[in-house]
Amino acid sequence: MSALHALHDAAHFVVAAEPTNPFNGVVPDFTVFGAEFNTAWKKILGGLWALAFAAIAAYCVSATVKFASAKKQGYEHGITESARDLKNAGIAAGVCAGLPIIFSAILSVIG
């Protein structure tokens, strides 16, 4: 009976122990790597974001041309397919434009 009692006490200790969060109070801070790194990563991210906008714009123009061509020629399947591509391009543009808001919302929920 004493071994069972010791096992119960050990299990109670494990359940009662509070896990510690090693990230408590830690926030992302790129300034620790220096001002040059802090400036460089922002420029790189801005460049990648600009490339994403350019790719989405090209996709949007291509989808618009395909849609107009399919509509002019009366191809129902082509109209459906190009309309889907045009809708996807619009969604991609909205997501790309809203990235700062999306990331801010995620960080506010997590943090």
Which SSEs are present, and which pair or pack?
Blueprint (H helix, E strand, L loop, with lengths): L1 H15 L18 H39 L2 H22 L1 H12 L1
Keywords: Membrane, Transmembrane, Transmembrane helix
Protein name: Integral membrane protein
Summarize the structure in short.
This protein is 79% helix and 0% strand. The protein has 111 residues and is an all-alpha fold.
* Global morphology: elongated
Oligomer: single chain
* Count, helices: 4
Content of β-strand: under 5%
The stretches of 5 or more residues where confidence is low (pLDDT under 50) are none
What's the helix-strand series? HHHH
- How far apart, in Å, are the first and last alpha carbons? 47 Å
Structural class: mainly alpha
Largest sheet: none
Could you tell me the number of beta strands?
A: 0
Tell me the count of domains.
Answer: 1
CA gyration radius, whole angstroms? 27 Å
Helix content: over 70%
What does the average pLDDT come to?
A: 85
Keywords: Membrane, Transmembrane, Transmembrane helix
Transmembrane segments: 48-68, 89-110
Organism: Actinoplanes ianthinogenes
Protein name: Integral membrane protein
